[in-house]
Structure formats: structure tokens, C-alpha cells
Amino acid sequence: MDTLLDPEFHRYMIGSLFILAGVLHFLKPQFFMRIMPGYLPWHKPLVLISGFFEIAGGVGIMIPSFQAIAAWGLILLLLAVFPANIEMLRKYYRKDGLTLFTWGLIARLPLQFALIGWVYWAGL
Length: 124
Hints:
By secondary structure, the chain is mostly helical. The protein contains 5 helices and no strands.
């Protein structure tokens, strides 16, 4: 089978991306705290908790006996952090207007749903 069409290959790609993102939550928590919606309490604990679940989901999707539950967990996590993506766009747009970076943040919003679809396809 062609590697690029093999869901197992994609599970390892997805897992690696989420593990890296999760580790960054612990190495650079301030970055993630700045993009959190103001209405959420406990920014640092929530950043660390989401980082933990990104790592756990990334590892889990690479283990066949855990891949389905990990895929659902990652999908729920992606939905849960979507407001932070909107908040990041809102903050940078307010500060800088329409720049190349803010256009990238606009493009990122539908890509979040593509990522959900990718996790669903590869993990379930």
C-alpha cells in the first residue's frame, strides 16, 4: 500500500505533531496563556492540562489498542481549544489589523476542522 494513503503512517504523523505541541505547552506556557479567552479562569493550569492531553492523545493514537479513544480525545480537544484560536485572531487583528499573520490566523480556523477530519480518518 502507498505510504501516503496508509492510516498507520498518518497516525504516527498526527501523534508526533500533538506530542510536539503538548511539549511546547510546558516549555512556553506564556505563549499559550496569552491566547486564552479572558473568560476562562486558571490560564496556566489549563495550558498545562491541555498540553498533557495533547501528549497523551499523541502517544495514544500511535498505539493500536488506544487509537480510537485517543482519536476521539484529540477531536474533543481540538474542538475545546477552537475558542483560543478565535481569541488569538481577535487579539492580533485588534492590535495589528489585517497583516499577513492575521490572514494566516483566519486561514487557520477552517484548517482546524481539516485537522479534525484528518484525526478522524486516521484514528477511527
